[in-house]
Amino acid sequence: MTPEPTPVLDIEPAEASRLVAGGAMLLDVREDEEWNAGHAPEAVHLAMGQVSERAGELPTDRTVVCICRVGGRSGAVAGALAGAGYDVRNVAGGMLAWELGGLAVVAADGAAGRVV
User: Residue ranges of the domains in the chain?
Assistant: First the structure.
């Protein structure tokens, strides 16, 4: 039986942006194609399927803010990380809400991006 994920606080994109500006890590767990089309400039990319094997690369001394397209995948990742002892938040509405909130989105080549 798989343990239940630990509940995680969902935050709005504006709050996520404030946390990142204050030193939190923004972790984008979407697939490569989604990341390449558009992501937050401050984000670090680590696809959901790679998180468990690469969790040791994540900081334990600051908050990790997880984001995906709409918040489901990042919520699952955030729950798993919280269960492992990380201080973590999930962005409610994901990158769609981030973009709708007027926050920056860039493509992999640095040009203006879009959420797919």
Answer: 9-100
What distances in angstroms separate CA 106 from CA 14, 37, 63, one per listed residue? 17, 8, 23
SS3 label, residue 18: helix
Are the C-beta atoms of 93 and 66 separated by less than 8 Å?
Answer: no
From the list 24, 68, 77, 95, the catalytic residue is 68
Per the prediction, the chain carries an average pLDDT of: 94
**Which residues, at least 6 apart from 26, have a Cβ–Cβ distance to it below 8 Å?**
16, 20, 40, 42, 43, 44, 65, 67
pTM of the model: 0.94
CATH number of 9-100: 3.40.250.10
pLDDT tens digits for 23-42?
Answer: 999 999 999 999 999 999 99
The question of whether 66 is a catalytic residue gets the answer no
